[in-house]
Amino acid sequence: METPLTAPIETDAVVIGAGPVGLYQVFQLGLQGIHAHVVDALARPGGQPVELYGDKPIYDVPGLPTVTGQALADQLMQQVSPFKPTYHLAHRVSALAVQPDGRFLLTTHRGLVLLTRAVFIAAGVGAFVPKKLPVPALVPFEGTQVLHHPPLTLDVADRTVVVAGGDQAALDWALAIATNRQTNGVCSVTLLHRRDVIQADAQSLARMNALCASGELVFKVGQVVGVTQAVGEPAAMAGLQISGPDGQTVVLNADLLVVMQGISPKLGPLTDWGLAMARKQLTVNTETFETSQRGIFAVGDIVTYPGKKKLILSGFHEAALAAFGAAPYIFPEKKIHMQYTTTS
Ligand code: FAD
User: Fold this and answer.
1) DSSP β-bridge partners for residue 10
2) Are 286 and 295 contacting, i.e. CB atoms less than 8 angstroms apart?
3) Please, where are the H alpha helices in the chain?
């Protein structure tokens, strides 16, 4: 966890959303000489293409006959990298307020504060929020021993880990730490799912079977119904009460529960920011992609206008026009000569 900041970070541009359109917005701002801070609720960039169809081919991105959702995000990150944006991942923007000097103060749910001249909302269908297990006993351990969709870089040394989930993302997480069990020092890894079927590609399932056979990974069918606490350490979770398919409850040792139950988008606070909306989407001026608030621009799936198509290529076009529209607002004195990357 980052330490909550008290002093705001001052900047020219903040992009809300690191989906494909938010990332391309950063690139277009970079071409205009504008450095951007990028905030996303998720721990990794990529938005819908990564979260919802990471391994599926996309066929209609110009110049890329076929590209998977994950590969598109990787290529966009590479394209953006020369402009060195500052990423604030796993931060959900919860408040946006206009300041007396016309700038905007953004606050995230983890206490990060940004003060910016312009905002670019590329929030797609909303902030992706991990689904939780409906077990009240887990709540006191959230953020310490119960983590939702943590990054794969999490330090798991000396931990007894249970991964709860039955999809590709859950299996990927379990495989990653079980495969490197010797080097990352994890004590044990159990994949827990309420059914005996994991929805994942054949290669991952074969890998899972091999790791289960060698004892590096344990697969268990059941649902978390409660926790057990260490004797003398009431604040620490020592195990999980698991209800099995036979209706019996058993205790599974665990001092770290990784919850991978999928994610769902939430429009959330965005609807309270006083911006004009129609059918839960932001309305924009299609010359500049400015919203009803001067200095706040919006692009991608979050916007609506006559003829709008929720396509990646439409979002890319919108991001280019938003950058051209915002540049004179951010730098009123600066003349804009750039139009083609080939000649600039
Ligand atoms: P998103 O990809 O939704 O990204 C928005 C990001 O903003 C998310 O990461 C979210 O966490 C973040 N966010 C939102 N609110 C906040 C907040 N308050 N604070 C912090 N972060 C926030 N399009 C095509 O062109 N071709 C296809 O073949 C295609 N196939 C598709 C297949 C499926 C199954 C689906 C669901 C969509 C498909 N699409 C396709 C549509 C395409 O994925 C979207 O048009 C595209 O992802 C929109 O990009 P975006 O950046 O606007 O939004």
Assistant:
1) 115
2) no
3) 20-31, 47-51, 69-80, 168-179, 181-184, 202-213, 312-330
C-alpha–C-alpha distance, residues 94 and 132, integer Å: 19
Closest residue by Cα to atom 30, ligand 1, is 58
Question: Is the Cβ atom of 125 under 6 angstroms away from ligand 1?
Answer: yes
Residue with the smallest CA separation from ligand 1 atom 6 is 17
42 lines ligand 1 (CB under 6 A): yes
Distance from residue 333's CA to the centre of ligand 1 (Å) = 35
Q: Which amino acid is at 104?
A: F
- For the segment 210-228, what is each residue's pLDDT rounded down to a tens digit? 999 999 999 999 999 999 9
| Of 58, 51, 56, 45, residue with least CA distance to 19 | 45
pLDDT of residue 60: 97
pTM over 0.85: no
Atom of ligand 1 nearest to the CA of 125: 3
- Tell the residue nearest (CA) to atom 52 of ligand 1: 300
Phi-psi region of 86 (alpha: psi -120 to 50; beta: other; left: phi over 0): beta
Say which residues have a Cβ less than 8 Å from residue 335's Cβ, sequence separation at least 6: none
CA 289 to chain centre: 24
Q: Which residues of 47-61 are buried (b: 16+ CB within 10 A; e: fewer)?
A: bbbbbeebeeebeeb
Distance in angstroms (rounded) separating the CA atoms of residues 104 and 284: 18
List, for residues 75-117, the tens digit of each pLDDT value.
999 999 999 999 999 899 999 999 999 999 999 998 999 999 9
Q: Is 60 in the pocket of ligand 1 (CB under 6 A)?
A: yes
**For residue 305, which of 321, 327, 294 has the smallest C-alpha distance?**
321
